[in-house]
Amino acid sequence: MSTQDRCCGVNACCTDAEHPVDPAVTARQAKTDAGCGCVDDRADAPVVVIGAGPVGLAAAAHLAERGLDFLVLEAGGEVGAAIREWGHVRLFSPWRYDTDAAARRLLEPTGWTLPDPGHLPTGAELVDRYLLPLSRVPELDGRVRTGARVLAVTRRGADATRTIGRDERPLLVRVREADGTVRDIDARAVIDASGTWGNRNPLGHSGLPAPGEAEAAAHISGPLPDVLGRDRDRFAGRRALVVGMGHSAANTLLALAELAETEPGTRITWAVRGDSVARLYGGGDADGLPARGALGTRLREAVEAGRIDLVRGFTVARIEGDGPVTVTGTTPDGERALTADTIVAATGFRPDLDMLREVRVELDPATEAPVRLAPMIDPNFHSCGTVPPHGESVLAHPETGFYLAGTKSYGRAPTFLMATGYEQVRSIVAALAGEREAADAVHLDLPETGVCSTDPVTAAPATADLLPGAQAEPAPRAAAEPASSCCGTPEPVPAGVGFATGLAHGRSGDAERADA
């Protein structure tokens, strides 16, 4: 190593092959600390990945394989922090489909082996047996910062209005560290894979919170409470109102029905805006993913047996009271009031766009997804199985070097598949590495009805991705049917596997499905 190389703290200063001698710091930081003069504001800055979930860590794995400097910023206290919050639920897909190819290539030399390919992992297992080991491989170790919440993305020295010389400046990521320190990090490129968990859709109609919703926050739970475990005391012997028509709602309803068998006084009401719940009941025995088919079948049986009170055509108008609360809604027959101790808001999610106000993103006004992606994922016409493969060219924004990936790239559309996210970041990283042909060669061989949600959208859409879209079932306490989540499937599945009823996709099928 030359004197200059040692000075710069990297193995090959000022070349395309340079890497920091200390893997715990970026090449730019190593050279800055060494006082070297060959620091280029853009070329020497790392690629910053926001979010250390499956898609964010897959991006890191691809960046590591291509020798690109990178840094992963995770707001939670550990990788996969959002998944940990629903760690008690299982995916619809077994381990054989739940990992990224580049991630596996980095993991295998460490002695890691894929768990039983046919086993349906819980969210906690996905974190403990895949994401945590991945974050610790030598290529990623020291490059993943937890407790680091991104506050904003911009261009250094330029707000969103400035055009002249914009692309000559590095992107800037403002982050609040775990100790409260706020710092700015220059970035060559930014991949925002922060997901949508924690930013739920409101209970009210027309996209707005219901009057009184904020005041009733203490009586509203998230979409996947641990009814049979951590949150049992909140529901046992009490009245629960579940609002929403996605798999999150189904999982919670079935867990509540199981709780009611041993906890007298537990009462369950399920309110949906539409007149039909046929899409959530799904294909039953016709579903090629047995865990998913069983979910709809068991839910139908619980409703028909009277263990769950289903209220159709219910639109939340206002929420009043301070325990219990009264939820008043409009119905075709006039107003109706429902009383509950806890409301489970299984209403889906939307992206946090406030942090992106100073970068030039081009989003579809309806879905809040990148404009070229939006027609491919429009929930009015698509389920996750009908979304075509897509990569960097579809995800690029007017802001050079900035990308949305994973759940957040789908905006409000609940049609996301984890497999799609893995292919997104593979393509993005290939483009950043200058491999245009590889970036454009996108592949995702998924059958139309194969590995997607039987409930791609609802009037109050529930997300259908793994982040947070493990629209999954509570982990069974006994030898019940395995619980799972459809859109955790990250790899192609042979044609014929999955939900194959031939139903119309998206909201366009609602009119034909008013029979259940």
From TrEMBL:
Report biased composition (Low complexity) as residue ranges.
471-483
Keywords noted in UniProt: Oxidoreductase
Which Gene3D superfamilies would you find in this protein's record?
A: FAD/NAD(P)-binding domain
Asked if tRNA processing is a keyword of the record, the answer is no
* A Pfam family per the record: Pyr_redox_2
Task: Specify where the region named Disordered lies, as residue ranges.
Answer: 471-490
Residues forming the FAD/NAD(P)-binding domain are 47-366
By what name is this protein known? Answer: FAD-dependent oxidoreductase
Q: Which organism is it from?
A: Actinomadura sediminis
